[in-house]
Amino acid sequence: MHGFRRSLISLFIVFFLTSAALSADSLITYLEGAATVIRGSSRLSGEIGLSLLMGDMVETGPDSLAVLDLENRGTLKLRENTSVVLSDLGDDMSVSLSAGGLFSRIRRLSGRGYRVRTPNVSAAVRGTEFFVAYGPAVEDAPDVWLCVNEGSVEVALDDSGESVLVKEGEGINILSGSRITDPRFYPWTENLNWNTDSSSGNVRDETDLSGAYTDLRAFDYD
Questions:
Q1: Do 44 and 37 contact (CB within 8 A), yes or no?
Q2: What is the 3-state secondary structure (H, E, C) of 122-172?
Q3: What does the chain look like in DSSP terms, one character per residue?
Q4: How many Å apart are CA 147 and CA 129, to the nearest integer?
Q5: Choices 1.10.540.10, 2.115.10.20, 2.60.120.40, 2.60.120.1440: CATH for 11-220
Q6: Which of 21, 49, 173, 214 lies 20 to 30 Å (CA to CA) from residue 161?
Q7: What is the pLDDT along the chain (222 residues), one digit of tens a residue?
């Protein structure tokens, strides 16, 4: 996994949705531990019910998590030590993930799009539920893990044009932003907690990504 060149590619996940109306608000719907909302020069304490605006950065602290509702179009779950910017809350919503891990569950709404961006990779989504998380940095560029719970995701490297289709139940690793591993089932993904509704049970995800690297060596380096 070492020796890959540093690459600045943008990860964007695009999802076109298919029916229904929007509500006017984005807000924090669930919180464990501490979260901060950075709005311009202001730092707000994250609280359940706090309205979120375009451009807000939401950060979770250690041993914390937050669930966000984006205008009734989708739900985001932020793991601990995660940083997400609500870049665009218009017709084509986009968020930027700069640290940690993010679960996205997007509703199907006509003519609406959804994107997730990182500095490392680009992907087009055909589905409703997926997970993106940073791994360790290699040559100053972090790995990015992506797996799909429902639907499929087309992932491409901007520099080389290399692309793969990640199907439901499969995962990949973008190694140092420069190489995509083969999509396949990785046992570590069985431990992910996809639940975003506290009334349905525990929502905390404590998956240890070190297990992902054990699986990676077993499948990609044997």
A1: yes
A2: EEEEEEEEEEEEEEEEECCEEEEEEEEEEEEEEEECCCCCCEEEEECCCEE
A3: --SPPP----EEEEE---S----S-EEEEEEES-EEEEETTEEEE--TT-EE-TT-EEEE-TT-EEEEEETTTEEEEE-TT-EEEEEE-SSEEEEEEEESEEEEEE---TT-EEEEEESS-EEEEEEEEEEEEEEEEETTEEEEEEEEEEEEEEEE-TTT--EEEEETT-EEEEETTTEEPPPB--GGGGG------GGGS-------THHHHHHHHHHH--
A4: 9
A5: 2.60.120.1440
A6: 214
A7: 444 334 444 555 554 443 333 345 899 999 999 999 999 999 999 999 999 999 999 999 999 999 999 877 789 999 999 999 998 877 777 889 999 999 998 876 655 677 788 876 665 554 468 898 988 776 677 888 999 999 877 777 777 778 888 899 999 998 887 888 999 999 999 999 999 999 999 999 999 888 888 888 777 654
Alpha-carbon distances, residue 47 vs 33, 43, 52 (angstroms): 10, 12, 11
